[in-house]
Amino acid sequence: MVYMVGAGPGAEDLITVRGARLLGDADVVIYAGSLVNPGLLKLTKRGCKIYNSASMTLEEVVETVRKAEKEGLITVRLHTGDPSIYGAIREQMDAFDKEEITYEICPGVSSFCGAAAALQMEYTLPEISQSVIITRMEGKTGVPKRESIRAFAAHQATMTIFLSAGLLEKLSRELIAGGYEEDTPAAIVYKATWSDEKVIRCTVKNLAEEGKREGISRMALIIVGQAVAQKDYERSRLYHPEFTTGYRQGEKGKE
Ligand code: SAH
């Protein structure tokens, strides 16, 4: 059996209880060494075999799992954040299907949630933005044209931009070309929830300048949109005294 486990954004205690239990049960762990906190490996039992997938191909990962399966061992494939986001798990699952290897996914806290916590922000501020766009700049991996930064910018929703910390100049240009005002609030969150986390608040215009000043070119998320400022929002109706919900009688209804 293979468990594809989300390791969370970085801090060792931000893996789920289930993920931690599975790590403790594993005979074999293959972890994404470039992003997963190696401190999590302390949760493995003695004798557990540990592989770093940063230096492996998909074929090598599948071969390692196949061997473990033959011996009836439990494998944990430890992915950063949540496996469903830029985790390259579909190709892995297809390869497991071909080998008739059964697997289960254990979700994790994605880094975009870690970044919101670092910024102490609510992505979905009433009257400011009610949507979060999870996206990336085109790099070695392409992005469908209809999903370009420029195209998404037109929505003025809150954007969380992955895998783009090394492309800040172009990102800034594309955001502005797509319709963001130059002074739209933005933030760079480097290593969210790790002990060396850095939070930089800036604007769409000076993203690259600020990133360069702090020497950031990887392991960062860029958050863009009016919501980053966390002001000028409408109070939510859910907790308003006048508002009746399925769980609470509002003051108006009581009259
Ligand atoms: N599955 C992961 C994302 C993997 S893609 C998740 O759900 O978070 C790798 C990219 O995620 C990095 O380039 C960076 O943009 C972002 N990332 C991962 N961990 C991060 C962290 N702790 N802080 C900021 N960005 C992070």
Descriptive account of the structure:
There is one protein chain. By secondary structure, the chain is of the alpha/beta class. The chain has eight helices and ten strands. The strands form two sheets. Strands 3-2-4-1-5 form a five-stranded parallel beta sheet, sandwiched between helices. A five-stranded mixed beta sheet has the order 6-7-10-8-9, sandwiched between helices. Helix 6 packs antiparallel against helix 7. It is globular, with a radius of gyration of 21 Å. The chain starts with a strand and ends with a helix. The mean pLDDT is 95.
Task: Offer a concise description of the structure.
By secondary structure, the protein is an alpha/beta fold. It has eight helices and ten strands.
Structural class: alpha/beta
Sheet with the most strands: spatial strand order: 3-2-4-1-5
Q: Helical stretch count?
A: 8
Please state the CA-atom Rg, rounded to the nearest Å.
21 Å
How would a textbook summarize the main sheet? 5 strands, parallel
Beta-strand fraction estimate = 15-25%
Query: Are there runs of 5+ residues with pLDDT below 50, and where?
Result: none
Task: Provide key terms for this protein.
alpha/beta, five-stranded parallel β-sheet, 26% helix, 8 helices, five-stranded mixed β-sheet, 255 residues, single chain, 10 strands, binds S-adenosyl-L-homocysteine
Which helices and strands, and how do they pair?
Blueprint: E1 2-6, H1 17-25, E2 28-31, E3 49-52, H2 58-70, E4 75-79, H3 89-98, E5 103-106, H4 111-119, E6 132-136, H5 149-153, E7 158-162, H6 168-177, E8 185-190, E9 198-203, H7 207-213, E10 220-224, H8 251-254
Parallel strand pairs: 1-4, 1-5, 2-3, 2-4, 6-7
Antiparallel strand pairs: 7-10, 8-9, 8-10
Helix pairs in contact: 6-7
The structure holds S-adenosyl-L-homocysteine (SAH).
S-adenosyl-L-homocysteine binds next to helix 4 and strand 10.
